[in-house]
Please model this.
Amino acid sequence: MAAEHSSIAEQVGAVARRSVVRTLRQRGLIVFPLVFPLILFGINGTALSAATRIPGFPPVSYRAFALAVPFMQGSLFVAVTAGTDLARDIESGFFNRLSLTPLRGSALLAGQLGGALVIACVQAIAYLLVGIATGVGIASGVGGALVMLVLSVLISFGFAGLGTLLALRFGNGEAVQAVFPLFFVTLFLSSSSLPRNLIKIAWFHDVATYNPVSYLIEGIRSLVITGWDGQALALGFGFALALAVISLGASSVEMRRRLGRT
Amino acid sequence: MRRLVYVARAVAWRSIHNTIVSPSIIVPSIIFPLFFFAAFAGGLSKIAQVPNFDYKPGYTAFQFVFVFLQSAAFGGVFTGFAVARDFDSGFARRLLLSAPHRGGIIVGYVIGALLRWCITGGVVTVVALVAGMDVPGSAVDLLALVALGVLMNLVAALWACGLAMFLRTEQAGAVIQMPVFVVLFLAPVYVPLRLLSGWVHSVARLNPATFALEAARGLLAGTPVDLALAFSLLAGSVLFWSIFARAGLRSAERAAG
Model:
């Protein structure tokens, strides 16, 4: 039994090492998803500062309010990176060759997410440091900053699972890229720009309320602007965990189907 | 001249045909502006309550103008992606060898960008009207607004085509897109210029996109402002980026041998 566990760990390690090295070699995959959310944060953090004069807006700078958004945008980019990498393996035939080896499907899935996790960690740390460097204080302190990183990586992991699911389902990178705008839509239609109680248009308010992304953002945001808010954190971690479990579970089923077909 | 028209017509037809028959191309180019519109006009409408926000037609119209011009610019950018894809696939090399007038290639792609924007701009306008947007501007004002959009589309298309011809790879997508995105977002997107503060206000004051945006918002409201300046800046940009696109074509010709 122990030998079997060790064997799976080795398999995950080998696939993860390849995934990490491949990701690190493609600097574009790291730089663009890192820089783009920071540019938007830099612009919107100042351009939308007039929003703080809306009655009922939390008594913080807009930059502090908006810091959670790059974390979410980064997670969406991680989903595309994870999906595109796996799709490329499927398109190039590498996945088929792997399926002829004793490698387990679960090890392949877990290992493939290794590169995505590296990007997720780098991004989360960079966003946090940029936020602090631009004068944003973390209301929950150092402990809260660490919890932010954990929540952010968990969210990225969940979205990476979605990217992997798409790659396994469609088998080509173009399809994964094409679905990317839909991921972004979930961010647009959330409480990313204003608190939900300040969203005036009824349909938008309803969509933002039912959109899980609102709670992921609010979980991170609460640590920045409120401090330790148990409800926001429970909802944030709850939805992040649910996303990870559902996306990885569905990916496992899809992986078995694809391996069986191969 | 006939040869230029012949090439331009063929390239433009192919460009718009590819756009219409490929859901992966047409759907994102329509959906993106619509979601920007929904997110800004819907999610941020409370910003109209900020003291001194006095755009008479309301926040939906305020955001419509930005999304209208943004869709024009991105119609050009997406055409740049198509040019890059043509170089990656080898089609552009064959096109360079067979075209009797290579200048027609740029003209064709630019016309393709304009036709593409006719679709996305039309959809965005219909959605905004259905959403109850107030339009106090006269027919002449609205024609001038469309003319600003056409010029914006030309500027972006010439920039994108030129750069795609210099770089000749699909991987150039981010490099083509990012500057346009940044220039547009460094204009007064969410509030009028006078309500901006900090470094964004300083940059927006000098940003050519600001003049186009403020003029377009004035036209929709029926109170034109700085029209001559906006049109002159955009016309000058068209000229400048035409030279850039021609240089890109020369670079591609040299690479093709």
Observations:
- The mean pLDDT of chain A is 87.
